[in-house]
Amino acid sequence: MTGHSDNELDKGATRPRIAFVCWRGAIGGTETHSHLLARELRAVDVDASMLFIEDGGPLTGRLERDLVPWHALGLARGRAVLRHPRRFLRTLNAVGADGLVLPDVGLLGAVLRLLGYRGPVVAVDHGSLLQLSRMSPWKRMRLRLARAAARSPDYEHVVVSEAMREEVLRHRGGGCCTLIYNGVELSPSSDPPQYTPGERLIVGIAGRLATGKGIEFAIRSIVGRHARLRIAGDGPYRERFEALTGELGVEAQVEFLGWVDDITGFWRGCHVGLVPSTHSESFGLAAVEAMAAGRAVIACSHPALIEVVGSSGLLVPPSSSSAIGEEIDRLLAQPELLRLGLLARERAERLFDIRCCAQAYAKLLRVRTTPRSRDTGKLRSPYAGRGEELGRSSLESA
Questions:
Q1: CATH topology of domain 9-179
Q2: What is the fold, at CATH topology level, of the domain defined by 201-350?
Q3: How far apart are the C-alpha atoms of 44 and 395, rounded to whole Å?
Q4: What is the pLDDT of residue 110?
Q5: Is the pTM above the cut of 0.85?
Q6: Per-domain residue ranges of the chain
Q7: What is the CA angle 29-30-35, rounded to 5?
């Protein structure tokens, strides 16, 4: 199944063909970032597309809007690819002959080599290791076996944060890995929020409404406070969270928007961002999106979120509605703290520019790119000065 007919097929034959592989087209951090990377690489003359093992899902609307071709194998489950190896390889060679970016380090990379795929492969550690403690024994064993099978010099191992690199080392991943921070598109302007003392503080959340995201703690945090909560996202727990607002009597203070296409516009309609995750994150794309819009962020103190937010936000312990509420009270009493959004924007420009991110992936994939006409001057890599190209580090097995 192809969701976008590429009218530049003939031209695409002369450009490097790179495919970003995802299990399905849900709107999550991994899928959203793969979309942004594919769009950015297409802007610099790389024939980038997305390939879904299962179905295209809601992400396809955004891909078609941005003229990013996508393809879906339509398999019932990701593991079914093992039962259709020739079909899988044929599709890969058609859309990703010059390189692939995989959504995880695991069996898929090893299978590709066994099937005879010879292009460069980049496997991105988006955080499956962080879920080990919540997995059944069978799933834990399966994940560990899959990662063991994938230990090979035939692919590039990318981590999206120093925190994730430490997690890989803790689990004795071995080999080498490359740090490439996820990136976002930076809007031309990012004015600080206009807040008038006495008005309600508008707190924004963006993400999937599911377990581990801490939405229930965010809702409880505004009870009895002069604040509103705007939530951009959807998921299996939406009805549960909507019911909770009724139980707590804050229906008028919480707005469920569903998925929004203009995420920058969403953040500009908020005074401050909130990332209340109760489970550890590998990165924290929602935090960076808010920072890029010039908004300070209240974030739970997981290692990756501490790394992403730095000194440009406010940190709270996980699973604590009272701690979140105290920071909201602090912002209401000291609205000048909202100017932390200026530091947040500067940090996003320095570390999380999607253009630098795309160039780092292009270098790993060994493809040439053409500078965008709107780019002026040389982009400064966020990895400059680290002493290692692209933040590359050796992870030695203990």
A1: Rossmann fold (3.40.50)
A2: Rossmann fold (3.40.50)
A3: 32
A4: 77
A5: yes
A6: 9-179, 201-350
A7: 95
